[in-house]
User: Which sequence fits this backbone?
């Protein structure tokens, strides 16, 4: 019996190591690409040891004509998308959580259904529309269009957080004669502040990782990081270490957010429908 | 719960509630609905109208002629669009099914709760956090015929690698794209299923064990039914996402070689933003939207029939 348990334990650890090798190995290998010289990128067999260099990062962040502005652009667009989405999604989530509504299930599914539409299909109409109103290449155009992702996501996730606030607290305030807006601002929202932060963080990741919208709506000066990496691909002679360095910049913020908010990952990824 | 379940003393006299009070929940939802309708309805209506016209931006800035259903006929008859449909369905169905099965297997290993396994669980989510376009670059490097890690691993295992590379051969390219999606999203299923299974009460499992139920029976008859709702939701979300995959294909293969990795998302991109064939891409858009809506509506109908909200 004892030896069988030991065997199973060993097997479980072996499986754990296999998962790490398959799912994390490639990421580390790609991180290594950003700090090795371009010549050693494609050696066969792959070389684990190499002289690390920060040349690629210097090239994309410090040299003239760098990606540094794209890093700033990515931040502006993602933060803008999150901030614009809050005044729209928080009241909606509050209403869907706190009031009896006819067709609540259908309204919730409608929000979700919006995530089914192929974003690519919208790009031509957006392009035409945004050119007509003279917003082409602006941050605002991207921030606006990203709402198609961030609002439905935030409504679902916020609702799950507001659902958890005990109704008794609001009842007590109502007995004391507080109006609904006082209750919402003074009681409910302060309690769900962590939920608002978590929702904002994951909405940030959604916006940050989006490449389709900036591909069409950004200009040279407002291009975000994903578009920057594509740029290295279009030029003659693919410079892999530069691509990797720019990609690493794009990878780091979402990774940090997911690791810091580990407790909420399941909830965030399932739009609040699974508590985790 | 309603805004007026308990009345304050001064409200005992019958008062007509104001318009705002009566419609409060709807007024709170309205801004987001209006915003989304503006962002979604306009493009869809624009596409609907454009789909009946011959309109190519390379030919002229305005629609040239009303052509009725020609664009739809052309789309359905186009060999590359049909290939895109087939590939998209293969990716969505095989991808979602594989990711669910592998994710469940990983979740069951994580549930063993041995010391150190929580580190594995925390790190495992990383592939899912990366932007799909960046994952495209990552695998483009790994698949490189000259010195990619995957190529090297396959060759070391004496497996045949096509001379033109994994992405360069029509026989392996779609499988390569599928593998990328599986790599990025299996952890998502693993983490979510693990969290749901963790919530299954131990007493039930213990009782089943005392009744000599096998591990397989416990999984199929107890654990899975208990996390049914979660499973329904994540399968639906994932299916919808794969159906619209675009970023990874753009970076890895641009739909090639031939039409072997063309997907709906990529097809729309190429017709719209490379060929500027607005009329045709609008018809394709509507076909795509209808297909995904029909599939998801059927799925929701059958899956949520007995579900309470």
Assistant:
């Amino acid at each position: 019996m004892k030896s069988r348990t030991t065997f199973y334990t060993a097997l479980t650890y072996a499986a754990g190591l296999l998962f790490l090798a398959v799912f994390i190995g490639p990421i580390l290998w790609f991180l290594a690409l950003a700090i090795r010289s371009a010549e050693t990128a494609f050696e066969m067999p792959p070389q684990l040891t190499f002289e690390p260099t920060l040349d690629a990062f210097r090239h994309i962040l410090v040299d003239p004509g760098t990606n540094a502005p794209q890093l700033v652009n990515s931040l502006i667009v993602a933060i803008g998308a999150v901030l614009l989405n809050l005044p729209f999604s928080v009241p909606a989530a509050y209403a869907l959580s706190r009031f009896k509504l006819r067709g609540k299930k259908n309204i919730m599914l409608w929000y979700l259904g919006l995530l089914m539409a192929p974003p690519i299909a919208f790009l031509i109409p957006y392009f035409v529309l945004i050119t007509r109103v003279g917003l082409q290449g602006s941050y605002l155009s991207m921030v606006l269009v990203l709402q198609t992702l961030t609002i439905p996501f935030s409504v679902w996730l916020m609702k799950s957080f507001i659902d958890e606030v005990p109704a008794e607290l609001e009842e007590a305030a109502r007995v004391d004669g507080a109006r609904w807006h006082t209750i919402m601002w003074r009681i409910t929202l302060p309690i769900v502040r962590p939920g608002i932060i978590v929702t904002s963080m994951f909405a940030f990741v959604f916006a940050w990782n989006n490449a389709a919208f900036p591909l069409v709506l950004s200009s040279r000066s407002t291009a975000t990081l994903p578009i920057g990496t594509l740029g290295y691909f279009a030029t003659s002679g693919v410079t892999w270490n530069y691509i990797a360095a720019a990609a690493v910049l794009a990878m780091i913020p979402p990774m940090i957010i997911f690791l810091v908010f580990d407790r909420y990952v399941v909830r965030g990824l399932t739009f609040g429908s699974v508590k985790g | 719960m309603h805004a007026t379940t308990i009345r304050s003393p001064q409200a005992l006299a019958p008062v007509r509630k104001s318009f705002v009070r009566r419609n409060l929940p709807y007024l709170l939802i309205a801004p987001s609905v209006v915003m989304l309708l503006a962002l979604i309805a306009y493009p869809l209506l624009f596409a609907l109208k454009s789909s009946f016209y011959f309109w190519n931006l390379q030919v002229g800035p305005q629609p040239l002629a009303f052509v009725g259903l020609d664009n739809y006929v052309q789309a359905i008859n186009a060999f590359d669009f049909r290939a895109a449909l087939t590939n998209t369905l293969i990716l969505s169905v095989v991808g979602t099914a594989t990711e669910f099965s592998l994710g469940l297997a990983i979740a069951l290993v994580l549930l063993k709760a041995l010391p150190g396994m929580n580190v594995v669980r925390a790190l495992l989510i990383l592939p899912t956090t990366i932007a799909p376009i960046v994952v495209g670059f990552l695998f483009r490097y790994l698949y490189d015929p000259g010195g990619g890690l995957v190529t090297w691993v396959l060759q070391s295992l004496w497996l045949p690698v096509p001379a033109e590379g994994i992405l360069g051969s029509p026989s392996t390219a779609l499988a390569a794209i599928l593998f990328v999606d599986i790599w990025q999203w299996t952890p998502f299923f693993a983490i979510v299923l693990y969290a749901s299974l963790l919530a299954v009460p131990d007493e039930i499992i213990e009782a089943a064990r005392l009744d000599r139920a096998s591990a397989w029976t416990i999984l199929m008859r107890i654990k899975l039914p208990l996390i049914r709702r979660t499973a329904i939701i994540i399968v639906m979300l994932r299916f919808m996402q794969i159906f619209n995959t675009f970023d990874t294909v753009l970076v890895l293969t641009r739909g090639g070689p031939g039409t072997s990795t063309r997907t709906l998302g990529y097809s729309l991109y190429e017709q719209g933003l490379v060929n500027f064939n607005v009329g045709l891409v609008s018809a394709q858009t509507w076909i795509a939207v209808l297909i995904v809506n029909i599939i998801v509506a059927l799925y929701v109908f059958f899956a949520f029939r007995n579900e309470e909200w």
